[in-house]
Design a protein that fits this description.
elongated, 5-stranded parallel sheet, Arc Repressor Mutant, subunit A, 14 strands, single chain, TIM Barrel, alpha/beta
Amino acid sequence: MPRRCYRFSGFMLDMDRGRLVRGGASVPLEGVPLAVLHALVSRPGRVLSKQELLNRVWGTAAVEESALTTAIHKARRALGGERGLIRTVHGQGYELAAKVLAPVTAGDPLAEKLRALHWIAYEPVGYDPVIGRYPSLSSIREDMRVLRRGGLNGLITFRAEGTLAEIPMLAREAGFEGVIMGLRTDQERLVSLAETSAANVDSFCLGHNEPPSAAVVDIMGAVRDATNKPVTSTWYLDGSNDPAYEAITSACDWLFPDVGAPWRERHHGVDRQIEDLEAKIHRAAALARAHDTVVMLKMVSFPSGGIAGYSAAEQLGFFSRLLGYYRSPGYPYRASVFLSFFSAFDIEWKTRQAGYSPCERHIGFYGLDRRPKEAAASFSGTLVYSRRDH
């Protein structure tokens, strides 16, 4: 049965749990006022007459119209006294004047894209935020051509400053079927930038480190309202010990946890990293069930060098093993837990001096010269699967 959960103007109305939430905290509202709000939220932009509301909430019971007036007043008060959200249409009734989104669930259009496309996290060749160097649009276009020729068709970005803001449009021009646009919450004109990019974006992903969690939730709501697109954030699977975890996770339309990188400081073989990732897939499935949505694991990766023991051949072995499991008929979470990969290209600016593992410079499926490594070739072989496969 589909979950009766709706997000609008920074609020989440969860009728399965009988609660109204804002910023991860429950807002006091129950009983008849909650039912009236549900009737309006489940029909956004539509005027419901007083009689229709009376019928939907009270059924055949005989009640005075004043009971509806009182319930509307309590619902408005719960929404912060914002009369604009529940609008009175004189002589007709009431309507919810807000855009409403439901959580992404299995079978939804976005869930199907998350399942069916080959998703890769992308930083352009030549980009260096340490010195403020941004690639030219022609350089980004060449990156796009290389990735598309390699069989990749879903793109994940991290930032949107400078020429990076043009990546969603350039990705669509190159034939990418899906784009998840990353936005930093401290970025200037964040909401207007999201609105400008929305036509080329399937979902937005907001950072969560700054500002504090309540502000992140508000920003997520503002982006959702401005674009009418699903919004998520990134967290580690074990982030539940952080007090901000519940607030941000509850505000997400789908979940995009970072799987972390056990390879950062020392060599871990293919067997150990496969076992680690399989355990995280099982935890992601539990998360999907708990939040009645879908999960795509972010930053699934394996380096081709940087620390003794890692090689291009071992990188290929890891992804061949992993995708063999992921594509197999026995994979148990085909409708709810998906994978995305990191990184499209090696990352030149992530040096030990900048505080990163030496493996970061060898984490791509393609080198800085845009030549494919052995693992990249598997996107047109081992890693590729189509909608017809499922």
